[in-house]
């Protein structure tokens, strides 16, 4: 099952052209990751206890349909790839308009950092298992 979150866009998400600003797409994708991790039992407090945090190496957004103020959007995330130990991963977030059309995709490449050593590390086994259980991303046929 795909874990998704529904949002309503805000005035602060808009640019002077009247549509959602580029960085708001990344903000909604990031919020989806935070919600997803918390649902798995890895909220902000748990990460602080573990002295562990997610980091991104790359973020790419593809814009397909305009989103305006007050629109309901749905964001989900699927696993495009992950290393065997869960230390590195790629998630593709899809942002849908209320009618189900894809408005954008946000692809992120990430890993885990040991907050004390400031070095990349492997996650706890239960977190790696949650990642391996994420639905797989399958690119749409062109």
Please tell me about this protein's structure:
The chain contains three helices and six strands, in the order βααβββββα. It is α+β, with helices and mostly antiparallel strands and 142 residues long. It has one domain: Hotdog Thioesterase (Thiol Ester Dehydrase, Chain A), CATH 3.10.129.10. Strands 1, 2, 3, 4, 5 and 6 form a six-stranded antiparallel sheet that branches. It is globular. The two termini are 24 Å apart. The mean pLDDT is 95.
Task: Report a brief summary of the structure.
The chain is an alpha+beta fold and 142 residues long. The chain has helices at 22-39, 44-50, 125-132; strands spanning 4-8, 52-63, 72-82, 88-97, 102-114, 119-121.
Uncertain segments of ≥5 residues (pLDDT<50)? Answer: none
What is the molecular shape? globular
CATH topology tier name: Thiol Ester Dehydrase, Chain A
Number of helices: 3
Taking the sheet with the most strands, its summary is: 6 strands, antiparallel
CATH superfamily: Hotdog Thioesterase
Percentage of helical residues?
Answer: 10-25%
Q: Give the CATH architecture.
A: Roll
- The total domain count is 1
Portion in beta strands: 35-45%
SS-based structural class? alpha+beta
CA-to-CA gap between the ends? 24 Å
Which series of helices and strands comes N to C?
EHHEEEEEH
Q: Count the strands?
A: 6
pLDDT average, as an integer?
Answer: 95
The CATH class label is Alpha Beta
Report Rg.
16 Å
């Amino acid at each position: 099952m795909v874990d998704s979150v529904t949002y309503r866009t805000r005035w602060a998400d808009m640019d002077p052209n009247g549509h959602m600003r580029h960085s708001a797409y990344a903000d909604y994708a990031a919020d989806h990751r935070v919600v997803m991790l918390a649902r798995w039992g890895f909220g902000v407090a748990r990460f602080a206890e573990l002295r562990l945090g997610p980091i991104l190496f790359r973020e790419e957004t593809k814009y397909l349909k305009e989103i305006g103020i007050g629109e309901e959007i749905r964001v989900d995330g699927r696993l495009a790839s992950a290393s065997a130990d869960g230390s590195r991963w790629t998630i593709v977030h899809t942002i849908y308009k209320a009618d189900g059309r894809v408005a954008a995709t946000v692809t992120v490449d990430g890993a885990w950092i040991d907050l004390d050593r400031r070095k990349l590390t492997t996650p706890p086994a239960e977190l790696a298992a949650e990642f391996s259980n994420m639905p797989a991303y399958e690119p749409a046929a062109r």
